[in-house]
Design goal:
mainly alpha, single chain, Helix Hairpins
């Protein structure tokens, strides 16, 4: 049961849910959560390939730590943009963000 295919299946399901959330949601916070799901599916792939690839070094774990750091920075910047968007136009709907262009 504990095989590479099972990890890849879980990762692909997470990636699919993340893509679905990014494409279908209009709320900026929900889109951000979809991006986080996509990054977590990449982390699962890094760890799984490192575990089942019989590597002596921990490259997958190191890449996963970099992805977590990237996700934290992305979340901080995206939430600052979302707060600014809400302050300026009163909503976090990304379709309403067109008003910021002009």
């Amino acid at each position: 049961m504990n095989s590479l295919e099972s990890y890849l299946f879980v990762s692909s399901v997470l990636f699919s849910f993340g893509i679905f959330a990014v494409i279908t949601r209009k709320n900026a916070v929900a889109i951000l959560m979809g991006i986080e799901l996509i990054l977590n599916s990449a982390n699962i792939n890094f760890i799984a390939f490192n575990r089942f690839g019989n590597f002596e070094i921990l490259d997958g774990h190191i890449f996963s730590i970099f992805v977590v750091v990237l996700a934290a920075a992305e979340a901080a910047i995206a939430l600052a943009i979302i707060i600014n968007l809400f302050k300026n136009i009163g909503t976090v709907n990304v379709d309403e963000a067109k008003e910021l262009k002009g």
